[in-house]
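Human: Here is a favour to ask of a fellow structure person. Comparing notes only helps if you start from a blank page. I am asking you to supply a protein in sequence and structure-token form. Write it directly below this note and I will take it from there.

Assistant:
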Amino acid sequence: MNWVPVLFWTAVAVVVYAYAGYPIVVWCAARRRANPVDAAAPGAGQEAADAGRPFVSLVLAAYKEERYIVQRLHNALTQDYPADRLEIIVGCDGAEDCTGDLVAAFGDDRVRLMQFRQRRGKASVLNDCIPAARGDIVVLSDANTMMQPGAIRRLVRPFDNPAVGGVCGQLVLIDPASGCNADGLYWKYENFLKGCEARLGALLGANGGIYAIRKSLYAPLPANTIVDDFVIGMRIHARGAQLLYEPAAIAEEETPAGVAAEFHRRARIGAGGFQSLVWLGGLLHPRRGWLAFAFLSHKVLRWICPAFLIAALVSSLALAGEPFYFRCLAAQVVFYAAALAGSRLGAGNGWRRPLRLPTLFVGVNLALAVGFYRWLKGIHSGTWKRTERESQTTAAA
């Protein structure tokens, strides 16, 4: 049974490193480095020199977005970017509601509709829309994401450097009930890591709600791609170009309507992560430097943490006859019980706040486990289920 303590400590070490050790390492490495996007900041008066701005195509893949698509188009057309250098392409996946009809009737020459009668999935929509774009720079966003007025200008600015292949903006989560910033601890934690990794030239993918790429670097995605934004961003690294982070390019998006919708989204992302390893595994080679280190530490180890959590629980149970390991087992049981209690309490319950961290941690890892199961069983597809938003459910009620 000598291998059981080794299993326990290995499992604990991996989980602690993935969630706490790696952030410390990457912060220490990045603290003295500036964000590479700052080097592309324009000089005095350069922002006003619109004559040299590249033509930009904003591509929106939409599925059953009739409630929001008109508002999204108005948002896109009020961007602080030269009107004669901007087009909006809406790829409507399937004709299951009036989304396509609303786009066709919008009445602005800068808006183009690409209607696909049969639903095929987001990757297939992007594969058709991006090659049809007129712009050398393609901005990708979602139909439920609202960009701040200067977002496209700030995304495009770093492309003055020919080495830059993509720029990721900052996605801010909004509580639909209050209209206030709803960025939680986990989202702030992820944005902190994104900033550190960007300084090391190791930004991992993009925020699907707001990022831009050079059209020339886009290669068609497999039709069953789940996490298209992650794959597209990592492919930019694979092509030898820079992927930068511009936190001043801000977009806002409503949080999901409930726990079930958020869990489904995370499980889908988990399945997409395992799927992407087939195409992106070469980026884990040590010759990739910080990129390989970040990919392994931030993504791969995080994706397999559920297995190590199970290993820690089972091994401590096997060793429970020893006082130390019995206390370790008891601590795990209490932690998981707290997570369960936190998931059962309503949002307004005062007891929920101290239980947020265990609830979030367990929820994320349970979703990753479900995602791994779906990937292992081949239960994955490029078509997506819409994530319901609070304003939709409220209106329906």
In short: The chain has two domains: 1-21+257-397, 36-255. Residues 43-48, 391-397 have pLDDT under 50 and may be disordered.
